[in-house]
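re: that chain from earlier
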Amino acid sequence: MKISQYPNPELIAAFLDNDDPKPVVMVNLLKFKARADAPDEGLSGAEAYMRYGAAMTTLVQSVGGRIIWSGRVTDMVIGESDVDFDVVALMEYPSRRAFAQLVRDARVQEISVHRTAGLQGQWLFATTQTS
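^ sequence. v structure.
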C-alpha cells in the first residue's frame, strides 16, 4: 500500500462533485518524517506538522468545522499494512462545501510549508454518517 503527501486531483474532483449536504468526517492517517525539512530543520517531523496543525485548527473552526479526536497509533489489531502510521485524527466539517472552502483558502497554502516539512505521507478518508 502506498501513502501520499499530496491529494490525487481526480479523487479531490470526485469528492467535490458529490453534493451530499450531510456533515463529513475526514479520517486522517498520518505518517511523519523522522526529521523535518526546511523551513523546520532541527525539529522532528511530528513537531513541524504540529505547527501546521495548530494554525489549521483555527482555520477549520472558521468554516464551522471541529476536531473530533486525535491520538497516537499504538498497535494494529486487525489487518495488515506496510505503513506504520503515527497519528489518527478525525475532523468534522458541516459539509463537503465547507471543506472545499477551507482547502482553497490562501492561509492554508501559507501554513502548508510546515505540513510538507514534517509529513511523510497521509491517507485521508471522507466519511458520512450512516442512516
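The chain has four helices and four strands.
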